[in-house]
Amino acid sequence: MRLGVQFVWIGVESKRDAYAKNEGSDFHETIGQLRQRGISVMASAILFLEHHDQESIWEDVDYAISLQPDYLQFMQLGPMPGTALHDAYLQSGKIMDHVPYQEHHGQDQIWFRHPQFTREESRDFLKSAFERDYQRNGASLLRCIDTMLRGYRMRSGTPIHA
User: Fold this and answer.
1) What are phi and psi of 39, to 5 degrees?
2) Mind listing the pLDDT tens digit for each residue in 31-72?
3) Are 42 and 113 spatial neighbours (Cβ–Cβ below 8 Å)?
4) d(Cα 18, Cα 39) in Å, to the nearest integer?
């Protein structure tokens, strides 16, 4: 805060400790402390990971929502050329060659074969995840304003109410 940091983007990815960078992290505490100090947080979560099925995907969505960041981004898993994930998916025949490269962006339909989800379902799940966040936490603009007010109160000595 004293350094002028106003915004942080945290790659939460999944409730599971699927990534070494997240092992032992308490994202509820971290995000709560940052917001109390007036630092807005964007958290991002990855959907359609290997372990996701019709139930576990919602566990990750609900976990990300429970963090109550100012902004919440849900991205579809994206095996991009030049990555180990892409190479593995290409070798196993999971990459869909007929999907144009410009559609490989993580905000519409997956471009690989997932054993639990079709391309069409991936679009619907993604949209539903964003809607669920909005229904539970409200508009991101209002969350951001709340964070700014929390930071102002902390710096001015005004009592902070949850």
Assistant:
1) -100, 115
2) 999 999 999 999 999 999 999 999 999 999 999 999 999 999
3) no
4) 26
